[in-house]
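## retry 2 of 3
previous attempt timed out at serialization; input unchanged, resubmitting
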Amino acid sequence: MDSGAVEEESGGSGTNVFGEPAVAPISLNLTALMDILSNLLFFLLAAFGATVVMAINATVPVRSSDKSDVAATRQTVTAMVTVGESGIDVTITGTDQSQADLDRFRTRIAAGTNGPDFTAFSNHLVAIKQEYPRSDTMILSAEPGTKYETEIRAMDAARETQITVSGVQRQVPLFPTVVVSPGAPSGGGEK
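## retry succeeded, writing output
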């Protein structure tokens, strides 16, 4: 036997164990696959962590009132404000107050030469807040033709005010929750 035949039978470099021609070695570049799988793993871990947190039964402590809610309704009213270039109309509504108590705070603050008097408006809201300290909601509507800037100034005047208590200046919230309502109908119709 020659050396070539021996090599063929023993499965040399040119053949496999069964005597077939050898297949060229294949090298796979798995870098991209590993990048995708690692990113997928991170997203799965993050999603699993979020679901575990959502499953935890927890309550958040809230500041409770010092009195019952039934007593608080007596101290709560809603300010109804209609603002226009000619002045500001203020009324209050409440469920546990008599109509006479509510009518005490009904007023019209006439506008001066520079437009509505927002200082007088703020002072009137302070008086309402002193009588009904738990109130914080104002429903604001505008007369037709009222400038947007006038509405914004009314909201700013109703948000908070500065008062002096024992010689110390403090910012006190008045009616920070504002619900903007569609404009009030004009009184006289078309002219």
